[in-house]
Structures are given as structure tokens and as C-alpha cells.
Amino acid sequence: MDMPSLKTRVSAEEWQLRCDLAACYRLVAHYGWSDLVFTHITARVPGPEHHFLINPYGLMFDEITASSLVKVDAECNKVIDSPFPVNPAGFIIHSAVHEAREDAGCVLHTHTRAGVAVSAQQGGVLPISQQSTFVLAGLAYHEYEGVAFRPDEKPRLQADLGSANFLMLRNHGLLTVGPTIADAFLSMYVFESTCQIQLSAQVGGPLIEVNPQIVAGVAESMRVQTSGLGGAFVWPALLRKLDRLGADYSR
Asked: What b-and-e string marks burial along 11-49, b requiring 16 or more CB atoms within 10 Å of the CB?
């Protein structure tokens, strides 16, 4: 959907953030992680105002552009006028994370089939793949409390998340936290791959689990060396992929 460009109405820093977030929405759609219009990816706008960018509710993820993203405050009130609605109920989970985690530059939430399936398994993520070791290095769980639209759930979600960057919402889906959009996306790529691999492996015979010492070593390595997976390394290549696909997200 076309709308006037906001490029001249926002700072250069915010415009770049908008382009990256719109690209993230397009990539989520490309990889098949979207659920029609029903999940969200949010990014914190730099500055003391505690403003955030969120998707215009009702647009498919492959329609979202930098200018169509809606800027809201911590209560999901629009900061810049937009012809598109927002979904305050959908912002509950995201606002809880942004509120509790100053390092949460981006929060990405999905309802994929593989993610929901593993979230419903009693054992959760199993240490059976290299991908799973990265997830288990910083994984937390939050029990299902029904559709997440009640503010009173926020303290429990914040307590469950703690300092983790991967959150499995039981019977619901997956969530990743990153200091940047690139980091949150790469974490979700690994999280989703972990769940897909687990479901595929469970169809076969007995599973071989990774040595717990190796899992513990990955966690320590990520904490000391990178504090994450290093999304900035792969992000330029992902943007080039979108360019080859002709995605017009940066308008």
C-alpha cells in the first residue's frame, strides 16, 4: 500500500531503523514465519522518549514499508499520525520486554507451526543439534495464560524472560530479543531451525543428545565473546537477498 514517505519527517537514524525493520518484516514473510497479520516485530527508536516502531495492523508482512511502520509510545498510542490502525493487545508482550530490558532494541515474535509444536512439548527444546546449543545458551520459558492482552501478565513474563534472549511461549510460539534488528532476526532464524530440526529428528529413531558440557561451553563463549550470535555479520547479505527479490521495503 502506498503512502507519503516519512524520510524527510524523521531523523536519519530513525529512517535507517525503519528501513531495517521493514526489511525484517519482509524476511519473516519470505521465510514463511508470518501468521497472516497476527504477530509483531517491534524496534525501540533511539532517544529518551521510549518510542517504538510496530507494524500497521492489517497489512501482510510482505506489504510493510519503512513509511508505513507506526511510531507509538509505551502505551501504544500513535506518536506520528498514521492512516493505519495499531493493535494495542498485540503490543502487550513487546512492551513488557522493552520495559524490562534496556538492551531490547528489537523484539521478534512468531507463531510458526514448528515453534508452536515444540512449545507444546513437555521437554521443550532438546539438545540434539548444533543449532539447539545456541538457543539453550540463553533460553527461558513462559507458561500459557491465554491470549496475551492483559497487562497483569507482564510482570510474570518479565520475570520468566530475565536476561535470556530466547523465550519459548508455551502453547503459543517463539520470541527473540536482540540489541539490534539484525540480532533478533538471526536469533529467530536459529530458534526456528532448532524447532524444525527437532520435529524432523523425532520422526526417526532414538535421539543422541549433545554433551551438557558442550552446551555449557557454548553459553559461556557467547557471554564472554559475542553476547549473541552476531547478526550484523549476515544482515547485509540478507538485504541483498531482498534487493534481488525486488522487495520495495525502503520507501
From this structure: eeebbebbbbbbbbbbbbbbeebbeebebbbbbbbeeee
* Terminal alpha carbon distance of the chain: 11
Q: Report d(CA 54, CA 76) in Å as an integer.
A: 9
Q: Is the pLDDT of residue 1 over 90?
A: no
SS3 category, 25:
helix
Residue 6: φ, ψ to 5°: -100, 5
Instruction: For residues 223-240, give the mean pLDDT.
Output: 78
Give strand pairing partners of 90: none
Sorted by where each begins, the domain ranges of the chain are 12-245
Strands 41-45 and 51-54: antiparallel
Answer yes or no: CATH 3.40.225.10 is held by domain 12-245.
Answer: yes
Nearest C-alpha neighbor of 86 from the set 73, 99, 101: 73
User: pTM higher than 0.90, yes or no?
Assistant: yes
